[in-house]
């Protein structure tokens, strides 16, 4: 019975969060460039079509930074595939895409190259080049140097999620409850605790929250419903 109650509360809370988020986000035509599937989660939370090719994949941090430092060039390259990753052994058998000769796209949610290629090309056509948002998480060989480089990029609308504090960096949002892990374990489930997504998408401003403020977000929505 206790488990059923917990499951019910989680579903109800999730529904309330999505309802409020969809009301607050006025910007409905944007492209999220992410080093993992976080952007996919945002589009789902907002009930939107995927308007980014960075879905169902991840990119190792050194390659992601290389991509962002010359973004238009790499996005203009034809996606190819390779059998071997410069990052060594990988646990699962999935397609590895290649932009240029040195940016690997790990399509870990796909089984076949053709499917990954078709989805990539289809979603590249949906990119809103006038409304780009960039996100880095501190996984996939992301070092402190990578985070510093990301923060220094001359890009609008950028945010970086980390499990360690970087108080001197404006783009960093610190997930304090995940500090024991060393790098992020659940940014998709926890981002609403630490980060005001609606404010970011509407204005590009990175507004940080504490976990207590995240709880208050849920409570205010429940009591106002």
Q: Can you walk me through this structure?
A:
- This protein has 225 residues and is of the alpha/beta class.
- It has one domain (28-224).
- It is built from nine helices and seven strands; from the N terminus they run αβαααβββαβαββααα.
- The protein has helices at residues 2-24, 38-45, 61-69, 71-75, 113-124, 144-152, 187-194, 197-203, 211-224; strands spanning 31-34, 80-82, 96-99, 103-106, 132-137, 158-162, 172-174.
- The strands form two sheets. The protein has a four-stranded parallel sheet with strand order 1-5-6-7, sandwiched between helices. It has a three-stranded antiparallel sheet with strand order 2-3-4.
- Helix 1 (2-24) crosses helix 9 (211-224).
- Residues 5-10 and 214-225 have low confidence and may be disordered.
Helix content: 40-55%
Instruction: Say how many strands there are.
Output: 7
Distance between the termini: 26 Å
**Largest β-sheet summary:** 4 strands, parallel
Strand order of the largest sheet: 1-5-6-7
Number of helices: 9
Run of helices and strands: HEHHHEEEHEHEEHHH
Structural shape: globular
Rg for CA atoms: 18 Å
Task: List segments where confidence is low: pLDDT < 50 over at least 5 consecutive residues.
Answer: 5-10, 214-225
Question: Which structural class do you get from the secondary structure elements?
Answer: alpha/beta
Q: Give the number of domains.
A: 1
Q: What is the average of the pLDDT values?
A: 86
Strand content: 5-15%
């Amino acid at each position: 019975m206790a488990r059923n109650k917990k499951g019910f509360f989680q579903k109800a809370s999730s529904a309330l969060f999505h309802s409020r988020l969809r009301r607050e986000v006025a910007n409905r035509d944007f492209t999220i460039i992410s080093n993992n599937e976080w952007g996919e989660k945002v589009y789902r939370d907002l009930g939107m079509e995927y308007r980014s090719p960075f879905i169902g994949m991840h990119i190792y941090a050194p390659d992601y930074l290389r991509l962002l430092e010359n973004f238009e060039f790499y996005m203009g390259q034809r996606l190819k595939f390779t059998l071997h990753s410069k990052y060594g052994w990988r646990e699962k058998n999935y397609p590895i895409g290649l932009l240029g000769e040195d940016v690997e796209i790990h399509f870990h949610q796909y089984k076949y190259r053709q499917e990954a290629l078709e989805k990539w090309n289809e979603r590249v056509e949906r990119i809103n080049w006038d409304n780009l948002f960039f996100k880095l998480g501190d996984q996939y060989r992301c070092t402190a140097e990578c985070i510093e480089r990301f923060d220094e990029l001359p890009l609008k609308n950028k945010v970086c999620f980390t499990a360690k504090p970087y108080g001197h960096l404006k783009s960093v949002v610190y997930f304090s409850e995940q500090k024991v892990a060393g790098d992020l374990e659940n940014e998709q489930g926890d981002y609403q605790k630490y980060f005001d997504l609606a404010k970011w998408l509407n204005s590009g401003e990175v507004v940080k929250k504490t976990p207590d403020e995240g709880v208050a977000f849920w409570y205010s929505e429940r009591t106002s419903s």
